Amino acid sequence: MKKCILSLLMLMASMSYSQGSELVINDAWIRAMPPSSRVVPIYLNIDNPTARERKLIGIEAEAGSIEIHQTIERDGMMYMKPVDEIVIAANDQVRLAPSGFHGMMSHFTQGVPEQGEKILLTLIFDNGAKQSTEAKVIKETLVKEVKITHVMAQ
Ligand SMILES: [Cu+2]
């Protein structure tokens, strides 16, 4: 019984860390870019196992300022546009991935993130919940391997 209470307390502690959000954020990564880059893209997955729709309305980091972007194709050309929010439907998931939604970091406080570095991100949702995740900076050539490993692990 004591063990039960202890694990319950630990569960409550981890829940308060995510400040009420019941979403699951994983596989966050940032593309390693040349040191002269003005912007770098951020990718991650958000799972919403709840019965309510949620919206991602912002991403924050001490490492720089971040906008939410969407890549769109028009007349065979790829464009990016800022979006105010990303809807994560109930019992659904959203991927911020190349050629789709992504975070776009600029105005770096400590320079362009380097390969292997880990950047703490805080995701902000429309219900006021904030949830943090660590994004690893990865070279694009390594990304395919990550994806393949991920698919095989499922
Ligand atoms: Cu962008």
TrEMBL record:
Protein name: Copper chaperone PCu(A)C
Transferase found in the keyword field: no
Membrane-spanning residues: none
Domain of life: Bacteria
Alphabetically ordered keywords of this record: Signal
Signal peptide: 1-20
Gene3D superfamilies linked: PCu(A)C copper chaperone
Annotated source species: Shewanella surugensis
InterPro entries xref list: LpqE-like, Lxx211020-like, PCuAC_sf
Coiled-coil zones: none
